[in-house]
Write a structure and sequence with these properties.
The complex is a heterodimer of chains A (843) and B (227).
Chain A lengths: L1 H48 L1 H5 L3 E5 L5 H14 L3 E14 L8 E8 L10 E2 L13 E4 L1 H7 L6 E4 L2 E11 L13 E5 L3 H4 L9 E7 L5 H11 L5 E5 H44 L1 H9 L4 H37 L5 H4 L7 H23 L22 H22 L2 H28 L9 H10 L6 H29 L10 E7 L3 H9 L11 E11 L4 E2 L3 H7 L5 E6 L7 E6 L10 E5 H7 L6 E6 L2 E13 L11 E3 L10 E6 L5 H14 L4 E4 H40 L1 H13 L4 H39 L7 H21 L2 H5 L2 H7 L1
Parallel strand pairs in A: 3-8, 5-7, 14-19, 16-18
Antiparallel strand pairs in A: 1-9, 1-10, 2-3, 2-6, 2-9, 4-7, 5-8, 6-7, 11-20, 11-21, 12-13, 12-14, 12-17, 12-20, 15-18, 16-19, 17-18
Helix pairs in contact in A: 1-7, 1-9, 1-11, 1-20, 3-6, 7-11, 7-20, 9-11, 11-12, 12-13, 13-15, 13-22, 14-22, 15-20, 15-22, 15-23, 20-23, 21-25, 22-23
Chain B lengths: L1 E12 L2 E13 L4 E5 L6 H9 L6 E6 L2 E2 L5 H11 E4 L11 H12 L4 H11 L15 H12 L6 E5 L7 H18 L2 E6 L2 H5 L3 E6 L2 E6 L2 E3 L1
Parallel strand pairs in B: 3-8, 3-9, 6-7, 7-8
Antiparallel strand pairs in B: 1-2, 1-4, 2-11, 4-5, 9-10
Helix pairs in contact in B: 3-4, 3-5, 4-5, 5-6
The chains are: A alpha+beta (843), B alpha/beta (227).
Chain lengths: 843, 227
């Protein structure tokens, strides 16, 4: 044991420089794991403490319909039986606001929340200045998020109009209980007094209002109350949840985020592991004589394998510890990066947690060991007779190595499953990574083979550069894999982003609607038509589409009854509430695939069903579907199945279209897709005038949505590019390591070439060409992988036409080529500097 | 005692079998100094490698102190070498990543000797390299490297020392120095010394001389050799 320890230390002392970069690669991966896990654990801790504040109550009862008096009465009864100590009602709806000063031509969609004096039951509303009190809201006061001040160019003290009522801005919200960070929102949050809600006119029919009851109750009574209410309300469209459910849900979200995100780090560590495996193979080849000497002086194979395993363990541990140090630095920088974000995130006490650190070190050390075991087993075949004459080390089938490789693969799946906290995910990720690695490897090999004819080139440097790529132990494969994988991530994600943006871009179809009006009341339809036809407003083509809310409660002859809320839950999306319309024509994006479309009104209800709904739920022509339309039961016969192109669904992509003649008198609102004015100013003016004339109508501007989509996508792209960048960094480290590892061979060759008459410039050109070609190949591997990725994602996941963005690919390949050439040449400067005689004498 | 019984070695050269050592039976008594001579390619180093268990014979058996080493596994062979055999190569074969002192200490560390460090220093002193212990092989001259190799061969005080042309890669002064050391070792420690050499003068000093040509023993003197 003492021998093993001493030899491991001596070997580490002698070779740590050559192996350094591979273990920095492990460090980068470990740093990613530890940072992600620590940050998420810190945030999770903060959220767990704030669970009640997150929903601002112990129990929350909500509905998107009007309260039915009997239901409400029953809830009240249950609350009083349960001994509820405090409760309050809130109303939430998206709506438009504008500065009351009519000269300012801006409007903005916001998420309005009307609250009573008891709000919030837990936590407090954070204000930029002063403390929150309900009196700030009384008599048409409003508190707004800072984004709204910027968007409307208003300040505290100014007046804004919400619906039909004028409000005075009395403060700026920094945090608001009950609004979760990261929740999807249509606009900045705005807080008004519950009592002022009627004045806005937003309580009318058709508004997308959510009614919420916040309840405070001693903790031990939370679960029984929730259970009781759920039992009582199972047939109603009422949602009941406790802060515990939110806590559990958030806990699960965080667990999932932590486990999945740390897989990113694991992939980098595994990439480092592949490099460790490759370098260990070369290392054993280089150490063969020393191993033979050790065997000659009495060491057994097991002892020698132990020496090198211990060396890998030491370097793996050092790499992992370095990773933890890097993570400490990264985590320390997070509060600075989050200076301007939500207070809850900003105020979290970030730090590297013990469990994250231990996991990171565990993963780093395990991966280093696992990946070095198989190549180290080759030591068993090094014979001491090697010292007497040169002989090849036995290769070929070796059951021990095969068994070890299988055990290592199983251990890697177990490791991934442990990190992802799911065996299925572990298997999928390992299989996916394996598949990707094999695909990239095969591509790399094919490319190396494709350029092989260049080894007959007339150019001496090019000939030798190409020959070097297929030299034994040249590390070409591992560099192609690592750098190629980095390029794959970056080029793939950028191409996908470009593809999606192109898909969303409305500029590709200049005549298409680019604005959307909602919540138009029946009485507003004609005045709105007049408004839009008025050339002064600059609106282009438009149509008013009647919409009604309907819920499927059954399908004739199919024994499907969807009368209760429980059935709805069990049936999934079929029984959700649909928005339906009626019309006598097909839209440009629609095509009949079965049955016939009607050609005029009829008193008998008929519907046309969208193809996806037909496929999924087997609703066929001839079936009768029973709808509940706000209490009115309508049974409609299916007379046609429509294919809808949802990529061009701006005139409405309806699942169910009714034949005219039966719904005209039902309660309904209208939506209006239209082509808005061209210039930003004209669009702002039109929206402003529209909201002035029709305060309850909401306007969605596709151009703004596109801007938001672009914004969100560039953030996502940035995040994935950071991952790609880390992988590329690992690739660069592996490349530097590979150069360092094989440098002695280069130095010797360069000395021979110099002796034979090659000058430094020729050797420099050889190096430049070798690494340039290697980089271009790695870039091509990544780029071809990215073509596969974008095609697969476009075709199977996003269902959009696949496009090739040549610029992204050419740029990616060129940048990778340049990067690898620069790194390769810079880390080989020694080769150029060495004097030939000294090198040859040393050999 | 070293006892070779019908030992031969055949290797594959390309696709053809090539016999580099024809069947040979030989006994080398304890404490004897035996020189093996012959031209290049005559099988001298192969014979030495077979005695050391560095290589396995194609036929026959090799007994060291009555133990048939051809029946031992790799690890048992390594242990036996560590305990009983010291080997000096023509090309030194020091471990480049270890200092001279560490190179000498390694066999003792493998054998679990407690004061390996002190003994390594003593051995280096014995070969006249007290001041060079902390140098790496690349920082030593050929003669110095061979002296370190010699000290390493003596580390576990083996009863058998095998030397494969130990002076073949050295100038005459260094060669003489190494031979003086080897003779001294044989004399003072009573070790069996088997020396492969081209040098007729050196061979003449041995108790017995074996001459090999094309893998066969063509001449022997004093030692008991059976063809």
């Amino acid at each position: 044991m003492r021998f093993v320890l001493r030899m491991a230390l001596r070997e580490t002392r002698a070779s740590w420089r050559r192996l350094l970069f591979f273990f920095i690669c492990i460090a980068v991966g470990v740093a990613a794991i530890v940072t992600l896990r620590s940050v998420i654990q810190s945030v999770r801790g903060a959220f767990a403490n704030e669970a009640r504040t997150l929903i601002s109550a112990d129990v929350l009862v909500s509905t998107i319909r009007d309260w039915v008096p009997a239901t409400r009465e029953m809830i009240e009864r249950r609350l009083s039986e349960a001994g509820v100590t405090e409760r309050t009602d809130t109303l939430e709806t998206p709506t438009m606001v504008r500065p009351t000063d009519a000269s300012r031509l801006v409007v903005r969609m916001v998420e309005l929340r009307a609250v009573g004096p008891e709000f919030p039951l837990y936590g407090t509303v954070g204000l930029e200045t002063g403390t929150y009190a309900h009196s700030l809201l009384e008599h048409q006061g409003v508190l707004v998020k800072p984004e709204l001040l910027t968007a409307l160019s208003v300040k505290v003290g100014d007046q804004i109009t919400i619906g039909k009522a004028v409000f005075t801005i009395r403060g700026v919200i920094t945090s608001e209980p009950g609004r979760r960070v990261g929740d999807f929102s249509l606009g900045p949050g705005v807080l008004i007094d519950f009592a002022d809600m009627p004045a806005t006119g937003l309580l009318g029919f058709g508004s997308r209002l959510r009614r919420v009851m916040l309840i405070r109750i001693p903790e031990e009574r939370v679960a029984p109350l929730v259970e009781q209410l759920r039992r009582d309300l199972k047939d109603e469209f009422v949602n009941v949840r406790s802060f515990r459910a939110t806590d559990d849900e958030i806990g699960k979200d965080f667990d999932r985020a932590e486990n999945y995100l740390s897989l990113v780090g694991l992939v980098i560590v595994i990439l480092g592991g592949i490099a460790v495996s490759s370098v260990t193979r070369v290392f054993v080849l280089q150490k063969m004589r020393s191993i033979a000497v050790l065997k000659c002086v009495g060491a057994g194979s097991r002892q020698i394998i132990s020496v090198y395993l211990l060396q890998v363990l030491t370097l793996g541990l050092a790499g992992s510890l370095l990773g933890v140090v890097m993570a400490i630095g990264a985590v320390a920088a997070i509060p600075i990066a989050l200076r301007d974000s939500a207070p809850l995130l900003k105020d979290v006490a970030y730090g590297v947690t013990w469990s994250a650190g231990a996991q990171g070190i565990g993963v780093g050390v395990l991966v280093s060991l696992l990946f070095s075991v198989v190549p180290l087993l080759q030591i068993r075949f090094v014979k001491p007779s090697l010292l007497l004459r040169d002989e090849a080390v036995r290769t070929g089938r070796d059951m021990t190595r095969i068994a070890a490789a299988i055990a290592v693969a199983a251990a890697l799946v177990a490791l991934t499953a442990w990190q992802a906290a799911s065996l299925r995910v572990g298997l999928v990720v390992c299989a996916g990574f394996c598949g990707l690695a094999i695909a990239l490897q095969l591509t790399g090999q094919a490319l190396v083979r494709a350029i092989a004819p260049l080894s007959n080139s007339r150019s001496f440097p090019l000939r030798h550069a190409v020959l070097h790529l297929s030299r034994p132990g040249s590390q070409t494969r591992v560099v192609l894999l690592a750098v190629g994988l980095g390029a794959f991530f970056i080029v793939g994600v950028r191409s996908l982003q470009a593809s999606l943006l192109e898909e969303f871009s409305i500029q590709s179809n200049p005549g298409a609607p680019d604005m959307f009006l909602m919540d138009i009341q029946r009485g507003q339809a004609d005045p709105l038509r007049e408004f839009l036809r008025d050339p002064a407003h600059g609106a282009g083509a438009f149509q008013l589409i009647p919409v009604l809310r309907a819920r499927i409660t059954g399908i004739s002859g199919r024994e499907i009854q969807l009368d209760s809320f429980e059935d709805v839950r069990a049936r999934g999306s079929l029984a959700r509430e649909y928005t339906v319309t009626y019309r006598d024509h097909l839209e440009a994006n629609e095509r009949i695939v079965a049955g016939t479309f009607w050609d005029g009104p009829s008193a008998e209800p008929e519907i046309s069903v969208e193809q996806g709904i037909h496929d999924r739920f087997q609703i066929n022509v001839g079936d009768v579907v029973r709808f509940d339309m706000l209490g009115r039961i309508v049974s409609a016969k299916v007379t046609s199945i429509r294919e809808v192109d949802f990529r061009d669904a701006r005139n409405g992509g309806f699942m169910f279209v009714f034949r005219p003649g039966t719904l005209e008198q039902s309660p309904q609102t209208f939506i209006a897709p239209l082509k808005g004015p061209e210039t930003i100013e004209a669009r702002a003016r039109m929206q402003h005038d529209l909201v002035l004339a029709f305060p309850n109508v909401s306007v969605i501007d596709f151009r703004e949505i596109l801007k938001t989509v672009r914004d969100v996508m560039s953030k996502v792209t940035l995040a994935i590019s950071v991952v790609g960048g880390l992988v590329l960094l690992s690739g660069a480290l592996i490349l530097i390591g590979a150069v360092a590892m094989t440098k002695f061979q280069r130095v010797y060759e360069a000395a021979v070439f110099k002796t034979l008459g090659a000058n430094t410039r020729t050797i420099a050109r050889m190096l430049l060409l070798e690494y340039g070609v290697l980089g271009l190949l790695a870039g091509l591997v990544g780029s071809l992988g990215a073509v596969g990725l974008t095609w697969g994602v476009s075709h199977f996941a996003l269902d959009i036409p696949w496009r090739l963005f040549a610029g992204e690919h050419v740029g990616g390949v060129a940048a990778t080529g340049l990067l690898v050439a620069a790194i390769g040449v810079l880390s080989s400067l020694d080769v150029l500097r060495h004097k030939p005689l000294a090198t040859l004498r040393a050999e | 005692m070293i006892d070779l019984r019908g030992v031969s070695k055949t290797v594959t050269s390309g696709t053809e079998p090539l016999t580099i050592l024809h069947p040979l039976t030989l006994e080398i008594p304890r404490g004897q100094f035996v020189a093996i001579v012959g031209p290049s390619g005559s099988g001298k180093s192969t014979l030495l490698g077979l005695i050391a268990g560095l290589d396995s014979p194609s036929a026959g058996s090799v007994l060291i102190d009555g133990v048939d080493i051809t029946r031992l596994g790799e690890d048992a062979l390594a242990k036996l070498r560590g305990e009983k055999i010291g080997f000096v190569f023509q090309f030194f074969h020091l471990i480049p990543s270890l200092t001279a002192h560490e190179n000498v200490a390694v066999p003792m560390e493998i054998a679990g000797v407690r004061d390996a460090g002190a003994r390594a220093r003593a051995l280096l002193e014995e070969v006249g390299l007290t001041e060079r212990g902390h140098h790496y092989p690349s920082q030593l001259s050929g003669g110095e490297q061979q002296r370190v190799a010699l000290a390493r061969a003596l580390a576990n005080d083996p009863p058998i020392v095998l030397a494969d042309e130990p002076t073949g890669n050295l100038d005459s002064t260094n060669g003489r120095h190494i031979m003086d050391l080897l003779r001294n070792i044989h004399r003072t420690r009573g070790a069996t010394l088997v020396l492969v050499t081209h040098d007729a003068g050196l061979a003449a000093e041995a108790d017995a001389r074996i001459v090999l040509r094309d893998g066969r023993v063509v001449e022997h003197a004093a030692a008991q050799v059976t063809r």
